[in-house]
Amino acid sequence: MNKIFKKVISLALIGTLCIGASTTTFASELSPEAKAEATQTNESERKVNWWQVGWKVLSDYFEKLIDLDGQSVKDSNWAYLVSPSIEFNTGEMGNEVYFKPEVNNSVGSMRMHGHRVIFVDIFAKINLILSDANNDTVSSAVTETNQYMFYDKKASDPAGKWKAQFISSESFKWQCYYAHYYNANTRSALPEVEDGFYFGDNNRVFQFSENPSPATLANNKILTMTELNNQFINPADGEAVDYLKDYAPGDEVHFADKVIDITYNADEKATTIFFDEKVSGDLIGWKFNGDLTNEYAIGDTVSLNFNVVKIGEYNNIIFESLDYFEEAFSHEDGGKYPDINNYR
Questions:
Q1: 3-state secondary structure of 42
Q2: Residue of higher predicted confidence among 25 and 5
Q3: If 0-12 CB within 10 Å is exposed, 13-18 middle and 19+ buried, where does residue 15 land?
Q4: Which DSSP letter does residue 147 get?
Q5: What span, in angstroms and rounded, lies between the C-alpha atoms of 320 and 311?
Q6: d(Cα 329, Cα 344) in Å, to the nearest integer?
Q7: Rounded distance between C-alpha atoms, residue 15 and residue 64, angstroms
Q8: pLDDT (tens digit, 9 = 90+) per residue, 286-334?
Q9: Is pLDDT larger for residue 1 or for residue 19?
Q10: Any residues with CB less than 8 A from the CB of 265 and at least 6 apart, and which?
Q11: CA nearest 306: which of 330, 286, 323, 328?
């Protein structure tokens, strides 16, 4: 299947029309011309009538029509939705986006995940919540960018409008993905690969490109945060991938960049060092065990060395990560944050 989410569109530009009872007051403020346009759009939308999209603005919910620009699929096998790239908690955008797919009794399984365009932002998390037509939560998980949530629909689950929520308390950009599958009642019955994503073991999801670029960089180069993130972008098509373009498992990656900010959290017993990722404009925070505020200050350069590790494989594609990233992920299982001395 060709990728159907290549075109990233600003949510603020395309989400302009409110629908649903929760927006009656807002809708009443529309001009006669806008009301006529809304009626025409709603008539067109009824022809589809299997999903709605909304998001939370400040403290109120508004259900808005979003032109997914071809980023949705529905056929006899599955229904698939992808949001534009959404920056949560910024401007009019609140902390939540949701899909409301029409789920009938032939749906067997559902899958949700959020994906960060910035690969190096490993501590970003998104809360996934799936609710049935009675608004009862059937599954929920707090996930990172490389994790998905899976749900086997039960025979007793009601048909109707379900709700797939994506909630973030931070100002990060995410793309939100939802799929349900007809007559597929077990995880093993689902495809391993969809739309450039490979769904591996332990609920991990990996992104790859069908047009990989050859390695060109000497391995002794020292990378900034921006350059390191660029290692996870495929030059041939500009897509984020879960492997480094110029390194292989076993290679060493040398990193050095200037500290933009540094904080210590006594509850976590961890220091967060912030670096600038210039392409996105985001500050990337990496966490390390203990208080490092006496060792580093704003403006200092932090130099680190990482090893490239293999984390999965599909059809001769090797998925890769850094040993620091993998140790950081293990913190979710009760471990400490990484010791910076292991990487200096």
A1: helix
A2: 5
A3: buried
A4: B
A5: 5
A6: 19
A7: 6
A8: 999 999 999 999 999 999 999 999 988 888 888 999 999 999 887 765 6
A9: 1
A10: 271, 272
A11: 323
Is the torsion defined by CA of 224, 237, 69, 20 positive or negative?
negative
Instruction: Tell me, yes or no, if the pTM score tops 0.85.
Output: no
Residue 245: partners with Cβ closer than 8 Å, 6 or more residues away: 212, 213, 215, 217, 231, 232, 233, 234, 235
pLDDT digits (tens, 9 = 90+) for 113-143: 888 778 888 888 899 999 999 999 999 999 8
Token pair for residue 125?
A: 């998390």
Exposed (0-12), middle (13-18) or buried (19+): which is 267, by Cβ within 10 Å? exposed
How would you list the strands of the sheet with 126-131, edge to edge? 17-19, 60-65, 53-57, 96-99, 163-167, 126-131, 137-143
Tell me which residue has tokens 């709605």. Answer: 52
Largest CA distance in the chain: 66
Tokens 């006594």 belong to 266
Domains of the chain with bracketed CATH: 69-189 (2.60.120.380), 223-340 (no CATH)
d(CA 326, CA 319): 13
Q: Which residue has the tokens 């600038």?
A: 276
Nearest to 125 by CA among 54, 67, 174, 63: 174
Predicted local distance difference test score (pLDDT) of residue 101: 86
- Angle of CA points 157, 206, 141, to nearest 5°: 40
What is the rounded CA–CA span in Å between residue 122 and residue 228? 13
The sheet carrying 270-277 orders its strands as 261-265, 270-277, 282-289
d(CA 276, CA 317): 30
The kind and range of the H/E element at 291 are none
3 state DSSP class of 327: helix
Using only the alpha carbons of the chain, give its radius of gyration: 22
The answer to whether residues 65 and 45 touch, using CB atoms and an 8 Å cutoff, is yes
DSSP 77-144: SEEEEE---EETTSTT--SEEEE--EE-TTEEEEEEEEE-S-TT-TT--EEEEEE-TTS-EEEEEEE-
